[in-house]
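Bench log, entry 3. Co-assembly request; chain sequences pasted below exactly as received.
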Amino acid sequence: MKIIRDISGASIKRSVDSGTEEQRRAVQGIIASVKQNGDSAVREYTERFDGIHLENYKVSEREIEEAFSALDPEMVSIIEEAADNIRAFHEQQKRSSWFTTDEDGTMLGQKLTPLDSVGVYVPGGTAAYPSSVLMNVLPAKVAGVKRITMVSPPGKDGTLSPGVLVAAKVAGVEEIFKVGGAQAVAALAYGTESISPVDKITGPGNIYVALAKREVFGDVDIDMIAGPSEIVILADGNQRADEIAADLLSQAEHDALASSVLVTNSSALAEEVSVEVERQLATLPREEIARQSIIDYGAIYVTRDLEEGIELVNELAAEHLEILTDKPFETMAKIRHAGAIFLGRYSSEPVGDYFAGPNHVLPTNGTARFSSPLNVDEFMKKTSVISYSETALKKNYEKIAKLARLEGLEAHARAVEIRFDKK
Amino acid sequence: MKIIRDISGASIKRSVDSGTEEQRRAVQGIIASVKQNGDSAVREYTERFDGIHLENYKVSEREIEEAFSALDPEMVSIIEEAADNIRAFHEQQKRSSWFTTDEDGTMLGQKLTPLDSVGVYVPGGTAAYPSSVLMNVLPAKVAGVKRITMVSPPGKDGTLSPGVLVAAKVAGVEEIFKVGGAQAVAALAYGTESISPVDKITGPGNIYVALAKREVFGDVDIDMIAGPSEIVILADGNQRADEIAADLLSQAEHDALASSVLVTNSSALAEEVSVEVERQLATLPREEIARQSIIDYGAIYVTRDLEEGIELVNELAAEHLEILTDKPFETMAKIRHAGAIFLGRYSSEPVGDYFAGPNHVLPTNGTARFSSPLNVDEFMKKTSVISYSETALKKNYEKIAKLARLEGLEAHARAVEIRFDKK
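Structure output for the full assembly:
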């Protein structure tokens, strides 16, 4: 793993696929067709892209029961425990409507309402992750969303993975459809005979799914469009190279485009980690992917001191940040930009990916500068509430009318004046 | 104003300009040029589009002093009072970081951090609204954003409107630049010699500004892209037609594309309001705009009863909703979708546009189904925090490893196992 001692141009090397013009046109065609022909278009695309004809593509109760039988009962209970942890963390995020009152009778407030319906996209194949189901569904559930519809592309045998189905059931999804790609996003956004349209679509997917989400955005809401995963580890010289290497590799195995970066003020640790990464790579089942990722997007930056490391970490604005220093809490106080922060050697990133409770859907590609992990707020909307009394309006209407006329909006001024028969 | 008694196909007629391919290409060209040539490109576009050459386009302290002199001192104090109200309401929205702890030493939390910097776009000409400055700047200020940069296109004489400059100063903007259009958005997103880049861009603008915001989205955050303004008034038979007509017209005068809709269960009120709208239109300075808006986008829907009216209001998901019923609070409890709700006859919409405190930047075009008024949360980001103790990880690492292996991610499993020398 390359060690870089001049950090002046340091960055996380990022590769975001924003699609080709051809892909964009293909996606637009699929959306138009699903919008017009509903289920028949969905069936046609499923046959073409997933290689299976499904007359009825809704998952049945029996299929869910079979998924539970297919899974080790211990695994089911681990999924349930992870779900409990995720639910508990997200419950803390939930807020209530509030109101303030004034002695003149004015009441102002903010009303919170869950979205009516949400669609969750779950990728198929080897990226069919039960954890992704829990992380996308549970915040919506905690928010109070009544209808959560899940979609996922079927395998060639017309099934979904048991882990995904069990996680969906545990999370409380009621409707699951075996459909993927841009056609699934279109069905969620505009509805078909089988699928009722939703207000917001979340969940990861390939470039066609990402482009389709961009296309339907505005007609429905979407979550962020995620780029490849990233980790930055900030470590001083007193940390274990083998543990750091293992954490870097857990990111690298995701994707050849994933970025794993170590920032340290210890030149010795830098050397050790570089050797450890090589040693551990050799025995990984996904060695090829992880090696490519480390070669193309991995880096070890050696800084003058810890303070310079902290500055660099803020510039990188990583999705995942592990802080391995003597006083990780004190270090954390200086971090302004990161999706999730993991403190100390027992907070290895997979703890957060699967189990601890905070969401693993995190801002990538430097967007931690301005965006947040998936959270309950994103499944509720605010409505402002204004109730003025006669006394309150009488006291203020002339000022309001003056402001309106300053902006050249006479009808605004008259609307408040007419309450007191002044025009 | 047309009265419609069959509400089966009722809708808010909405016209959203999403731009032409030619406009999109023009905007892409401007952005590329500003990115490459910085200030010199900004000066060139300002000369071309605003008809003025500005060597130094930053607003000076002297210009701000002049703006204060140009404005009636009473007006300045009204702007200050409005700012105080807006600040007080948004202070209620501000949240703190929080943490939970567990007896096994686990600490989980959510850290809140204001964005580093925000850019606010303020339109020029007759749409240079001081209220818009306050509504966009103050939530960012309350959130704790340190650097707020304002941009606005200069008039042909190279100045900005005094009202806008005074509002900016009152709201606490420190840097103001006389630049508008796509070139201003590009300068905020990517920086020039004069303007430092920001993390988020908010504020309304014409189609070129809207397209530019869409283009830079991802590199920076943006607020929503607003469509024409809308009001829905829900009224029973005991309400005053003249007040309702005045409120409908205060919306209609904004824009020929604005929508003003009355929903009532009283056929008599419907007739009265229709007549009143016609009567009041005749004396409005912006009669032509308001009349066009009422003809093209206005409607009075007569429902069977109040319940049917409430259902219709939820389908319409309006930006502004006035509730004029006997028990407006009880009616409000049944409303799921609206940007802002105004209760009772003394809460005319302009009260909220200018003065009461809640934000006037609201979701248009039906997006109140899933989005919210501009608020303090949008200027802060969340970071998840995970701190596991040795005890906590020891208790759980085998479960985490099992979940990782279920997903085929061996390096994830090893990362937690290596903490206990198991691989």
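The first strand of chain A starts at residue 3 and ends at 4. The radius of gyration of chain A is 26 Å.
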